[in-house]
Design goal:
Blueprint lengths: L9 H6 L2 E3 L9 E5 L3 H11 L3 E14 L3 E15 L6 E15 L19 E3 L3 E3 H12 L14 H9 L1 H14 L1
Parallel strand pairs: 5-6
Antiparallel strand pairs: 1-7, 2-3, 3-4, 4-5
Length: 183
Amino acid sequence: MAQRKSLPSLMTLKSVGLVTLAGLDRQKFHSFNFVPNPQLRRQMADEMGITRLLRLQFSGTLVATCQSDWKLSGDLMAEIRQQCVVSLDPVTSQIKTKVVRNFLRDEQKLKCDHNGRIPSDDNVETLTYAINLYDIAREVLVLEAPTYPRADKISFVGDDLVDKISQKPFAALEKLKKNLEGE
């Protein structure tokens, strides 16, 4: 006889950021507070390609909408460390943002319209048996983290030239014109 795999306990699910929806009362608001342990923060930092995830707190509420859909609203606060793209020095950034996700059971609402366009609301996701706070937090951090972090008082080699041109763009064009006429 095949042995059935049992699901992890609810405590284990909460500790990794999974909120199972089966036991939640649809008539109430449900609050959550996801603060991953150091091991999960290291794992998330590795997945994101950053040096360290120093602090992460994702808290908010889940509320039922319609007959089978859920809405997540929350605040995400994090402190991350990345390498400066110029000097490779450590750069620490604070991230504070609002998060909203609508989880829909009806996949017809998620599909392309008759013209092949995807719905413009990027806060809509397919509803499954659980909501994964870990995945949502990681996605938000990837989108909010600085793409090219720079340490204080560090500049690219060409920044001074760009500043001079942007201050007097017509003078730069005039100089270019004279150079072309001189050739």
